[in-house]
Structure formats: C-alpha cells, structure tokens
Amino acid sequence: MAMNTAGRSGQYFDDLETMRSEVREQYLNQRLSQVVSHAYYHAPSAREILEKAGIVPSQISTIRDLEKVPIIRKPDLIEWQRRRPPYGGFLAVPPEDVERIFISPGPIYEPLHSSRIKWFARAFYAAGFRKGDIVVNTFSYHMSPAGILFHEALRDCGATVVVIGTGNTEIQLQTMLDLRVTGFVGTPTFLMTVIKKAEEMGHDFRHDFALERAWFTGEMLPLSLRKTLETDYRITTSQAYAVTEPGGAIAYECPQQSGMHFMDDYVIEIVDPETGKQLGPGEVGEIVVTPVHNIAWGLVRFGTGDMSSYTTEPCPCGRTAPRLGALVGRTSDAIKVRGMFVVARQAEQVVLSFEPVSRFQIVVKRQQQRDEMGLRVELKDEAADREQLAAELGEKFQNLCRLKLDRIDFVARGVIPEKHQTIVDERTWK
Known about the structure:
The chain is of the alpha/beta class.
C-alpha cells in the first residue's frame, strides 16, 4: 500500500495501521492461508513438518488453526540448516530469486526475497522520523540484517541516513556534532555512552547537540533510562521489538508509549510454550510469529523464546492492531503456577520497585492438590512497616503478574543467599 499522508496529519505510514479489527483478521487469515500453502509446496522442510503433524494446507485457514502446527525454535532451525544446507529446506523460492542473505548467530542463513517490505518503515514513521531528519544508524551493516534494513526504512520515511555503524564513540560524537544530527537509531545503553562521553569532553549535550528523537531495539529500555533521556536531555524515545530469524520488526511503539502495536506483516500469537495453545489478552506466554511478508522464508510458527502478553484495548493514537506488552523474560525463566506463567524478570519488576526490599525469592509448593506461591523478603531497614508493605506488595504483584500470593514472609538478612534462584519450585507430583 502507498504511504498515507492525508489522514490525521499524516501520522500513519499506510492504511494497514488503521484497519478495523474484523478487516485485519480477514487480511491476516488470507495471507496466512497463502503463505502456508506456498511453504508446503515449495519448502521441503515445511512440508515435512506439516505432514508429520498430519496437516495439509487446506486445514490452516485461520489464525486459530495454527495451534495444529508444531512450533519451530532457533535450535531446531540450526539443526535443519546443518542437515539441509544452506537454508535447512525452508527456502520457498528459486535460489536465484533471493535478493539478500543475512546471517544470524548459529549461524542461521536468512533469505530475503524483496527489499520492498515496509515493516520497519512503519516503526520509524510512528516514532516521528520524516524528511529533514539527519539520522545516525549505529547498527552494524555487516552480516546482520539490522543496519541495511533500518537504513532503507529510514529512507522510506524521507530521512537522511548517516551510514556510521557500530563503535568508536568519539567519531560518533564528532559526526553528530558536525552534521547537526537530529535522530539516533541504536540501543539505549549506547546512546547513554555517547552522551556521557560528550559530557566528559566538556559538552553541554542539550545545548551543543541537535538530537531530538531516538529509536531503540535490541535491548530493554528501562523506564528509568527513558525518563532520563526524555526529561534530562529532551530526547523523544521510541522502541520496537524485532527478531532476526523470522525476518524483522514484530511490533513497534506509537507516541502513546503504552505497548507495541503488532506488525501486520506477521501473524503473532501469544502461546503456552508447553502446549502451543494460544492465550488470550493479558495472559503471559511465548511470542510465536509466522511471517506473511517474505515468501522466500517458509517458516511457519517460529517460537522466539520471549515471554510477554498483549492487549486489544483501543489505543488513542488510532492504530488498531493489538499491542504487545513489555518483555518479561525468556521461556527458560518461566514457571506455571495455577495455570498461569510467572516469569522471574516480571516478579523482579514488581518486588524490587519497593524501596525497603533488598532481596527476595518466590517459593512454589504443592499443598492439598493446589499450587501455593509464597514470597520471602529481606528488608534493608527492619523498622519498615511490614503490614503495609505486604498489603501494597501483594496488590501490585497480583495486578501485574495476575496471580495472588498466598503468603509473604519477611526473613532475616542472609537467609536468602546472595546468589540465588528468583523462583524455586518445590512441588512434588504424585
């Protein structure tokens, strides 16, 4: 679709972003059906996986039907490529039609059929990048898909790109200063490294530099760091969630900063990693994606290993896709309690947000055929009001993790070892 610059002051890159939910569902179901059929008839390994599961393409006509399909994860893809080099039997176009080949750690060879895919452009457009912006792209242009894909997406938005790549903080600084750079693309920690280096060299960053907006991916953007960048340095920040193996941006943030909108170039599921069953809004599970934009890559149901949840609540920005919540950890850090997943990092976000807490540990037991979840807490100050703290902590834990703690025990300092598991599973099954 062409860029839409007429509606709502041109705040949307294209019409996909504002489709009605029922139209979006029809669109994705149609694309999914086409992609699964194409993979089945042109990618030998995709066909083998489906046949072993007793599936033919006509059985996959809706997103719900994907529950029938086994999930492929990174170790599986590495093994497939070892057995069937170079693409593991997932190439679904003639080799001569592959426009580019990217390499991810593994190694995993990822074919791209067309560079005219606009999925990253939507992310940059939502972040405010336009013609007139001068942007340093600090991601690597070497082997990784990030550098070149971000570059082309920025150009789709009209921005001028400084092809600077990774490393050498002082050169980055001088370039940003000389060219009056207005935009930064990279990781939040690298931007802070650049800012701190500038201050060490005697610069007043807000006064001497022209940086107005920054776009991040590749690592978490903590709320504290976002606040520092936006309040202290007046840099508007935005972030996206991207995964290299399925081919690009999965979800992106709008100016509301209240979750990342699903990209309509993928079918995105939140699933129970143990069963592959799809979960509903607000439930934490594994992010599983099926690309429907890149016909060269016959991946159906790629499990990212990242845990999150989603919401279908309307967003004030007018974009209508569901929104992905914050990543709360990896599947290896998750444990199921009373049918819901509790993830170590998510628990840390809750418990350690209370200043009196110095250390904690979650202990899960099995009592009378019921999961029981308790929280052990060490305090920095023994004089803290334990009753009030327990009430506030329990309420916040239940609101964010969607599970109620059965008990909170305040223990003496040193009871919880310095190096300890965040979640201990003491359940025994009979």
